[in-house]
Amino acid sequence: MDIVHSYTAAVRGYHYYKQFWKPDVNEELRCLHEPFNLYDKFAIKIVRVGDETVGHLPRELSRVTKFFLDRGVSMQVKLTSRHYRRSPLVQGGMEITCTVFF
Fold it and tell me: What is the rounded CA–CA span in Å between residue 59 and residue 68?
């Protein structure tokens, strides 16, 4: 895999997915567009082996991420922590820090 660019982000929604997912540092996950998401038509879900969803990229990044995915760019997420932090969103939630590679 040739890494062209990377940036720091977060896997949001851990408060929902923690019941069946325990994050590991350096765990590699994939980014996929979630076209039928009711809240964001550009939503990018984060999936592990077997295409099991474990969270989403922040909405602020979903539109540009979808742009690259639509053009055949492969995007992966590598977790940089196994500990969650409180989301800066008004509605709250929990997120895990990560690096996105493409």
Answer: 15
Read off the pTM.
0.87
CA dihedral of residues 81, 65, 39, 55 (deg, nearest 10): -20
Contact 29, 75 (CB under 8 A): no
Distance CA 52, CA 45 (A): 9
Nearest 10 degrees: CA dihedral of 27, 28, 33, 38?
0
Identify whether the C-beta of residue 94 lies closer than 8 Å to the C-beta of residue 5.
Answer: no
Query: Cα(16)–Cα(2) distance, rounded to whole angstroms?
Result: 33
The Cα 63–Cα 40 span in angstroms is: 9
Q: What are the structure tokens assigned to 59, written together?
A: 């909405």
- Say whether pLDDT at 15 is over 80: yes
